[in-house]
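Q: I'm writing a short methods note and want an example of a predicted protein-small molecule complex. Could you take the sequence and the SMILES for zinc ion and return the bound structure as C-alpha cells? Please keep the output block clean; save any remarks for afterwards.
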Amino acid sequence: MKPNLDTQAREMLRAAKLYCTEGRATILKVLMKAGRPLSQNEIARRSGKKHFDKVTIYRTLESLLRVGLVHRAFMEKRARHFELAHHCTESQCHPHFTCTNCGDTTCLTEISLPMASSPHKGFVIHRQQVRLEGLCPACA
Ligand SMILES: [Zn+2]
Ligand SMILES: [Zn+2]
Ligand SMILES: [Zn+2]
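A: Understood, no commentary inside the block.
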C-alpha cells in the first residue's frame, strides 16, 4: 500500500474525531485502495490479517459508519457492500455501474442524477441509490 494512504486514513480519523486504531486505519486504506464498494468478506480478505476476525471487522465498520466516514452502498449476493462516503451526500449516493458479464462494479462519482420524487402518498424518500447495469470497457 502506498505510504500516503496511511497518512490519509489517519487524517480522516482525526477529522472525524475517532481514535486512530490499526483496525480503523486498515479498513479505510482497504476501501481507499479498492475505489469501489466491498463486502465484509472482501474487506476481511484484503485487510490481510488473520486475527482480524468477522466480529472485529463488523465493530470497526460500525464505528466508521457512525461517524459517516463509511456508508452502506448496496446489497449484492445477500452481502452488504461498504464504501468511503466522501463522494456522497446524506440524501444521495453516486450511481454504481455493474457489468453483467464480469460482475465488476464501478463508482460513477462524476454523475449526479436528479432526486426522484415520492411515487405514492405515504412514502418518504430518505436516500437515493441508483444501480446501472451493462458492459464495462473490458467486456464491451
Ligand atoms: Zn456512496
Ligand atoms: Zn465487464
Ligand atoms: Zn461508490
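A: Remarks, as requested: The radius of gyration is 16 Å. Helices lie at 3-15, 22-34, 40-47, 54-66.
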